[in-house]
Amino acid sequence: MWATLLTTALLLTPTQTPAAAAPAPPTPAAAPALPRDEALPPAEDQAKAALNQSPRHGEYVDVKLPADGTPIRAWMVYPERKDKAPVVIVIHEIFGLSDWIRGVADQLAREGYIAVAPDLISGLGPNGGGTDSVPTRDDVVKLVRALTPEAATARLNAVRDYAIHLSAANGQSATLGFCWGGGRSFAYAATQPGLNAAVVYYGTPPELADMAHVQAPVLGLYGGDDARVDATIPPTEAEMKKLGKSYEPHVYPGAGHGFLRAQGERTNRKATQEAWPRTLVFLKEHLK
Fold first, then answer.
1. Closest C-alpha among 175, 222, 217, 173 to residue 194
2. Residue 248 falls in which region: left (phi positive, over 0), alpha (psi -120 to 50) or beta
3. Contact at 8 Å (CB) between 62 and 72?
4. Cα–Cα distance between 10 and 2 in angstroms, integer?
5. Regarding the domain delimited by 39-286, which CATH topology (the fold level of the hierarchy) does it fall under?
6. Which helix (DSSP H) or strand (DSSP E) does residue 118 occupy?
7. Mapping DSSP to helix (H, G, I), strand (E, B) and coil, where does residue 53 land?
8. Three-state secondary structure along 210-233?
9. DSSP state, 82?
């Protein structure tokens, strides 16, 4: 009897089946790479190809320091023009002299400038080499950070003196720097009275006390999502205004630190599309 009842209960109980596993969400497709805009410097991943395709004459030169004769390796690109041209010194990021920085220099030459991008850690790497002798990017960063402001200024002075005395140069000069190089560009405007203009891409300013020595007009270009650097803008603007100095900051909403190099992100590309033309207008205004 009990066996009959048990059999009947099992027949009447609904069969329990394991719940089916929820399907995995589809992997989002990677955003397509943005095509190269020839009117802009290349993004980091486009730089090598852009250099290979450039019709302009670029070459490495060795610039000696007056103090000890240590050569500074620099990438120099000449514009295609009949008359003499101004010089723009491109100051690299904390990552040293990269293909991307050389690509920026080539883009400046496209716009009519003699562009020179020095490797400011020349002679400081293994066996007296520069950026390309250092095994890792982290090691490059250490060497750049160890470069004193005085040493950086001495090296920039040597490069500027070399470049403005080229037979193809008209004697005028500007600096254009990124991140660490942006800070050096601003600081150089406070130490080199012969400089005609300074462009600062997401770099920090010199000490407030040093701003009294700034002679050249300064253009600052910043990403809106770069709170560390952006916090320096209001006090810098106030101090430069109080001193009667020319400082023109622009902040691009949604763009991050290093936006000109990292153009694969659309807000960074948008910032680049606004910042680079503004850079060219500024250079044209102050480098006749």
1. 173
2. beta
3. yes
4. 12
5. Rossmann fold (3.40.50)
6. strand 114-118
7. helix
8. HHHHCCCCEEEEEECCCHHHHCCH
9. S
Tell me which DSSP letter residue 194 carries: T
- How far is the C-alpha of 284 from the C-alpha of 206, rounded, in Å? 25
Q: What counts of helices (H) and strands (E) characterise the chain?
A: 9, 8
Beta bridge partners of 223: 252
Give 101-111 pLDDT, tens digit per residue. 999 999 999 99
Residue pLDDT, tens place only, 172-217: 999 999 999 999 999 999 999 999 999 999 999 999 999 999 999 9
Q: Which residue has the tokens 């005085």?
A: 150
Burial of 162 (0-12, 13-18, 19+ CB in 10 A): buried
| Whole-prediction pTM | 0.88
Return the structure tokens found at 65: 């320091």
Residue 80 · residue 167 · CB < 8 Å: no
Cβ atoms within 10 A of the Cβ of 99, count? Answer: 17
Domain ranges of the chain: 39-286
CA distance 186 to 197: 10
Longest dimension (CA), the chain: 115
